[in-house]
Amino acid sequence: MPRLERWLSDVLGICRAKLDENLLWRLSRQEDVATLRRQQALAEQALVAQLKKQAQRLAHEMAMAQAEHQSELEMVKIRCKQDLRDYQEYLQALDNLKDSLKSSYAHLPDAVAFTVHHHAKQLLNRMWETRNEQERLQSELALIQFLTAIHEDSQLSLLRNDALALPRKTLAIIDGLDGARS
Q1: Cα separation of 47 and 59, whole Å?
Q2: pLDDT tens digits for 5-59?
């Protein structure tokens, strides 16, 4: 048994020596480990501070963008309301035009005034609904030319005092546009 005791004693001695060596190594590196832990804690604090700063900056940018979008939305709403009022005024003017045509050309069937009114409304709608600026300008020009023809026909009818006069320029424009579509 003494051999076994000696062998166990040697094994325990080796284990103690390794443990002592490990302990000495740890003690010798304790300052380095503490420095690394402090640096890691400082790095984590710096990262947290940086993330907070970025979160604040992003929150500020989002608030600014939201405010900008809100004001743009309000401007669009105002423009849409104004556009709606303008459109309603256009429609009212076209209704007045229809009534004027019916009185200026009382000898013609009401269908002529309704046709002219309908055509003017189509031109107005085309002008109003297009998103392309060039097409909008062309539609606006076509509406102006059509309304000018109606006005010239009405003036000519009043000057001639012709009871059987026809709105020739107006009807020619409608006929020309219908012929162009065919």
Answers
A1: 18
A2: 888 888 888 888 888 888 888 888 889 888 999 999 999 999 999 999 999 999 9
Distance (Å, whole) CA 144 – CA 124: 10
Which residues, 6+ apart, have CB-to-CB distance to 105 below 8 Å? Answer: 112, 113, 157, 165, 166, 167
Return the pLDDT at 182.
43
Find how far residue 85's CA is from the centre of its chain: 22
> How many angstroms separate the CA atoms of 41 and 105, rounded?
93
Instruction: Render pLDDT for 101-116 as a digit per residue (tens, 0 to 9).
Output: 888 888 888 888 888 8
Cα–Cα distance, 75 to 48 (Å, whole number): 40
**Residue corresponding to tokens 């009114």:** 117
Helices (H), the chain: 2-104, 110-129, 133-160, 168-181
Total-model pTM: 0.60
Non-local CB neighbours of 158 within 8 Å, separated by 6+ positions: 104
Give CA–CA dist 178/34, Å, rounded: 92
